[in-house]
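ping. complex inputs:
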Amino acid sequence: MRLDKLISNSTSFTRSQAKFAIRGGKVKIDGVVAKNAAQQVTEESNVEYMGVAVNKVQPRYIMFNKPTGVVCANKDKDHTTVFDSLFLPRQDTLHVAGRLDIDTTGLVLITDDGQWLHRITSPKHNHKKVYLVELDSPITDNQIRILNEGVQLKKEKKRSLPAEIEVIEDQKIRMTISEGKYHQVKRMLAAVGNHVVTLHREKIAHIELDETLAEGEWRELTSAELELQVM
Ligand code: URA
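pong. complex structure:
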C-alpha cells in the first residue's frame, strides 16, 4: 500500500496531513527518512512518525516541557492543551501523569499505558516531585521548619507529608514533595505565609526534564528512564 495511505489508515491524519509529514522528513521507514508519499510499504514495514511507530500499536511514554498558558487536559475550548503541541496520532488515548497548573512550567509525563500511569501517580508509591519555586518574599527558617514537618492544608483530612527545601537564593527554592494534591506547592507555601510567583517542575521520581528540550518540545522517554520507573 502507499505510504501516505498507511499513515492515514493507522492514525487520525488525513492523506494530505500524511503527505505534509512525509515532505517534512518526519516519517521514517525501517529507520530511513521517507521522501515519497507514493512509496510502497507493507504491514511488515516499520513506519515511524517523529520516532513513534504508527502502524504498530505500542505504548508511548513522552516527556514534555510545558510552557505557561498551556493546560494539561485532553480538550479545552479556551486554551491550548499539551496535546495540541504533540501532534501525535491516536492522541485521545494519551493521558497526563500528574497535571501542572496553567501557569506552571516544566516536566509533564504523558502515556497511553494505563498501568504505568497508575504506578507513577498512585499515592501508594509517593514518588518525589521536584519544583523550582520563585517566591514573593524571602523564605524564613521558620517557614522551612514548618514545611519540613508537613503542613495542614485547608479541606485536607491529613497533614501533608514533609517537604524538602533547598534554598538557592532568598526568594528562590527547590522544593521536593511526595504527594500530588491540587495546587499543592502553592497551597503549602501560602499556608506558611509565603506565595509562589513562578513554579517549574524539574523532576518526577528518577525522571528529570531534559535540558535540551525547549518549552513546548517533547521527546520519548529512554528505556533507562522507563526502567528506573518500574523499579
Ligand atoms: N503544585 C502546584 O501548586 N501547582 C502545580 O502546577 C504543581 C504543583
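The domain at 128-204 is CATH 3.30.70.1560 (Alpha-Beta Plaits).
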